[in-house]
């Protein structure tokens, strides 16, 4: 018998052939995913192809260039149909494309949000372990009527109770009084700015610091009344220090590695606890005003949430502070959007002149109470270019993951079935940057990663130099923009800064009023 001795070149040949085979397999599977080819016997989404068996898809480039990875048309976030993504021993499903997203929103009542909310509350907002247990036990679902198989007491329906209370406030009778309080606060603050800073111009190195501070103060006062900030003068600074450390909390970084981050979180939670202790000590039922609010708790929603959470097993004052600070922190998106909108308006003199003309057409004079300017808010919400500024700001600047999971039934997404208890991920960035959906101008001169309000105007102008020339000729914007109509037609599942479905962000109505009014005050 002859024995064969393998040379180094022989091993190299086998290695290269193996790599070539794996590469061919990867491209064949990628071609199947790209063309929608699948087995006739299954409705499960295809697995996104990967090269090395056992490892799965390893998106290493996401670590150092997340935006570049997301925008790469060959990554799993860009698949036109639902795909299964495998990473080591973990898997999730990605849903992209307007028709698929519509279906996801349509069937959103099947989803269980509790595991993800518990994670955020625990890791980010410091929910104590005693209160975390109730989230593990809450299998009643996110609908008004609990799931028939659930044995959770009504008082312990923590997921539904927290969301529904805030939704009723932001979409019900408390909404307009809340908006008026914000309008009064921000108008007074911006009109009296010179009294707080002196007659000399003050240079701000960071526009976000200025806009963010004024809008945050006004939002907190509208939500909580005056005592949160009166008792805790550094709360706004701590609020944004917390926000800057969000990824630290999300990753579960130990406190001894990031002591400053956890010190910032402790300060904001202590501030909420001290405000609510002051409210408990001083509030009386006779303090409630005609709109249901009072000077100690501020908005009625916090008074009602306090009673609701205290009735739940495992909840104490510290747990309530975590829940309520999470609700306050949610306002950061609209505050940040306000900054970006003001920034982009001031960068374009023609756009500034157009929006300023629109804002001027909405003025109704000065109020008798304090002599500050006032706007016809319903008219302000309808002027076309300002609406386009708002929509384009959220399209371009709001990046987040929509994470969902069904726990009792499979999730149908058009021709596909995603198994229950599997994580479903949709990325707003991909939807908002889809060049197949969004207009880029007649000559592609407005790429999707640049700010351009023409995407939301029914008659987008041909060139950047003439974009707003009609409106800029006159302060009478009612006539000068008559040919321009704000339109979201066909964009319902591609413009998703507030997610969608039955748990769509309840703060979306306030966010639009907040951003548009603050812009109006800043530019007029």
TrEMBL record:
It holds the Pfam family p450. Its cofactor is heme. GO terms for molecular function: heme binding; iron ion binding; oxidoreductase activity, acting on paired donors, with incorporation or reduction of molecular oxygen; steroid hydroxylase activity. Residues 463-483 are annotated as: Disordered. The chain crosses the membrane at residues 6-26, 47-64. Keywords: Heme, Iron, Membrane, Metal-binding, Transmembrane, Transmembrane helix. It comes from the Eukaryota. Heme binds at residue 505. Belongs to the cytochrome P450 family. This is Cytochrome P450.
């Amino acid at each position: 018998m002859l024995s064969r001795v393998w040379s180094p070149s022989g091993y190299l040949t086998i290695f290269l052939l193996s790599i070539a085979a794996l590469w061919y397999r990867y491209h064949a599977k990628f071609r199947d995913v790209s063309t929608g080819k699948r087995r006739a016997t299954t409705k499960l989404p295809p697995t996104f192809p990967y090269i090395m068996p056992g490892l799965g898809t390893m998106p290493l480039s996401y670590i150092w260039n997340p935006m570049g990875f997301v925008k790469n048309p060959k990554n799993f976030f860009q698949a036109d149909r639902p795909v299964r993504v495998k990473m080591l021993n973990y898997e999730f499903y990605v849903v992209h494309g307007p028709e698929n997203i519509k279906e996801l929103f349509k069937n959103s009542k099947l989803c269980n949000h509790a595991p993800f909310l518990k994670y955020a509350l625990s890791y980010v907002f410091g929910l104590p372990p005693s209160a975390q247990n109730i989230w593990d036990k809450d299998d009643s679902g996110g609908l008004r009527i609990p799931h028939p198989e659930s044995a959770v007491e009504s008082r312990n329906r923590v997921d539904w109770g927290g969301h529904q209370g805030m939704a009723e406030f932001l979409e019900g009778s408390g909404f307009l009084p809340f908006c008026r309080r914000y309008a009064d606060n921000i108008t007074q603050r911006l009109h009296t700015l010179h009294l707080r800073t002196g007659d000399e111009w003050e240079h701000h190195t960071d526009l976000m610091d200025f806009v963010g501070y004024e809008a945050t103060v006004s939002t907190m006062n509208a939500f909580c009344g005056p005592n949160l900030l009166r008792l805790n003068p550094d709360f706004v600074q701590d609020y944004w220090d917390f926000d800057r450390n969000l990824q630290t909390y999300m990753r579960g970084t130990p406190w001894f590695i990031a002591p400053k981050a956890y010190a910032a979180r402790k300060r904001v939670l202590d501030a909420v606890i001290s405000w609510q202790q002051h409210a408990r000590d001083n509030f009386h039922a006779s303090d409630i005003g005609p709109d249901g609010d009072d000077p100690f708790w501020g908005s009625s929603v916090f008074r009602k949430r306090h009673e609701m959470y205290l009735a739940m097993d495992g909840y104490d004052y510290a747990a309530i502070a975590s829940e309520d600070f999470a609700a306050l922190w949610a306002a950061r998106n609209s505050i940040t959007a306000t900054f970006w909108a003001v920034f982009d308006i001031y960068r374009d003199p023609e756009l500034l002149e157009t929006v300023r003309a629109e804002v001027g057409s909405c003025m109704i004079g000065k109020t008798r109470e304090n002599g500050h300017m006032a706007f016809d808010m319903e008219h302000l919400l309808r002027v076309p270019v300002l609406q386009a500024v708002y929509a384009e700001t959220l399209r371009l600047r709001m990046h987040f993951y929509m994470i969902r999971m069904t726990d009792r039934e499979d999730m149908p997404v058009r021709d596909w079935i995603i198994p229950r208890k599997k994580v479903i991920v949709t990325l707003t960035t991909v939807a908002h940057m889809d060049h197949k959906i969004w207009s880029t101008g007649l000559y592609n001169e407005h790429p999707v990663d640049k700010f351009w309000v023409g995407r939301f105007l029914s008659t987008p102008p041909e060139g950047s130099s003439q974009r707003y020339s009609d409106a800029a000729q006159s302060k009478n914007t009612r006539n000068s923009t008559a040919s321009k109509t704000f339109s979201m037609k066909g964009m319902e599942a591609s413009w998703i800064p507030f997610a969608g479905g039955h748990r769509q962000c309840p703060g979306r109505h306030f966010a639009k009023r907040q951003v548009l009014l603050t812009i109006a005050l800043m530019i007029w």
